[in-house]
Write a structure and sequence with these properties.
32% of the residues lie in helices and 23% in strands. The two termini are 22 Å apart. It is globular and about 45 Å long. The chain is built from three helices and six strands; from the N terminus they run βααβββββα.
Length: 151
């Protein structure tokens, strides 16, 4: 199974910090074969995939995505908001009513400065690790459901 980190700014320091935390998390290699970083407009998720949707403090809203879910269980996703100090929270993230997604949480909110702090980075790793098994199980369920629709 694969995990996508979907970010409007794939080369930004914030995205790279989250990517480093993901790769340092225990359980990452056991459940996911690779982590890919993608921009929302170019992202075409595969059936055996889960995703973390990253929204940064200066992103005004989550962009529309161009793919459809079909008749399968929504893609397992974990929203992650990174807020900069003294900036208001973004107005809108992904729409929780969107049937293309199966949200495993209301999301994780993180201050951007926490990514640079090793202790806070370990807390983020721990939070991410707690969602890995659920993301993995939902991805397997989604694969089975899709295979049942094809036969």
């Amino acid at each position: 199974m694969n995990l996508s980190l979907v970010s409007q700014k794939p080369s930004a320091a914030t995205t790279q910090g989250v990517l480093a935390a993901l790769r340092a998390s225990s359980g990452y290699g056991e459940l996911f074969s690779e982590v890919r970083v993608a921009q929302p407009g170019q992202w075409q998720p595969e059936r055996g995939e889960a995703a973390i949707l990253l929204l940064e403090g200066d992103d005004c809203a989550w962009p529309e995505l161009s793919w459809s879910a079909g008749n399968t269980l929504g893609l397992p996703v974990l929203p992650l908001r990174v807020q900069r100090p003294h900036e208001p929270m973004p107005q809108q993230g992904p729409d929780v009513r969107d049937s293309r997604f199966y949200f495993v949480s209301n999301g994780i909110v993180l201050d951007e400065a926490e990514l640079a702090d090793p202790a806070c980075s370990r807390v983020l790793q721990s939070k991410l690790e707690s969602y890995f098994p659920l993301l993995s199980r939902l991805t397997l369920l989604r694969q089975r459901q899709s295979a049942g629709l094809l036969s």
